[in-house]
Amino acid sequence: MLQPCLEWAHRLQALAQVGLGDARDEVQKQRYEEMRNISAMMCAQQKECFTPKMDVRGVIFHNRKILLLHNPLTKTWSLPGGVCDQSLSLADYIVQCISEEVNIVVQSRKLLALLHHDETYKAFIECNWRGETLPAQSQFFSVDELPSALAPGDTTREQLALMFSFLENPVKSAVFD
């Protein structure tokens, strides 16, 4: 069992990582980076390692199209999701995240991919959607209609191409690197 101070440092690290993923402006980003730095110093005193950051993205297909969300601040599009709070499972987190971001009810279906880049793991989870009305900031796109302005840290063309490959081959096994 970890010492209480180290447990708090790990929790602070997790909150900072979630906050960085949700930061809406530079001031918020700086605050969460400071939180992360403080927690890193606390853990370094104990010579402990951090749990890697887990970015979870929801993949919702409808009529051979994929759901993307528009961020009006950055004017970019991405799959719904963000940095997972370590107190939730990936399946529970993506359901909660989509509920909050898109205001629709989904059910997690299966893991499509688990990819690693830098210090972040990115999980792509296919979700079933009941078909309720979508808010204006979300839209379905076919593989040929993808917007040019994608949020590079959140969703890339290569990742979307990989997700569409699951639409073409529904029995394809999960991809990991």
Care to describe what's here?
By secondary structure, the chain is α+β, with helices and mostly antiparallel strands. The protein folds into two domains: 42 residues; 124 residues, Nucleoside Triphosphate Pyrophosphohydrolase (Alpha-Beta Complex). Helix content is 36%, strand content 28%. It is built from four helices and nine strands; from the N terminus they run ααβββββαβββαβ. The strands form two sheets. A five-stranded mixed sheet has the order 5-1-7-6-9. Strands 2, 3, 4 and 8 form a four-stranded antiparallel sheet that branches. The chain is globular and about 50 Å long. It starts with a helix and ends with a strand. The mean pLDDT is 88.
Architecture of the largest domain, CATH level 2? Alpha-Beta Complex
Which residues form runs of ≥5 with pLDDT under 50?
A: none
Number of helices: 4
CATH fold annotation of the largest domain:
Nucleoside Triphosphate Pyrophosphohydrolase
Structurally, the number of domains stands at 2
Q: What's the main sheet like? A: 5 strands, mixed
Determine and state the CATH class of the largest domain: Alpha Beta
For the record, give the distance between the C-alpha atoms at the N and C termini, rounded to a whole number: 31 Å
Please tell me how large the radius of gyration is. Answer: 17 Å
Helix vs. strand class = alpha+beta
How many strand elements?
A: 9
Mean pLDDT: 88
What is the H level of CATH, i.e. the homologous superfamily of the largest domain?
Nucleoside Triphosphate Pyrophosphohydrolase
Helix content: 25-40%
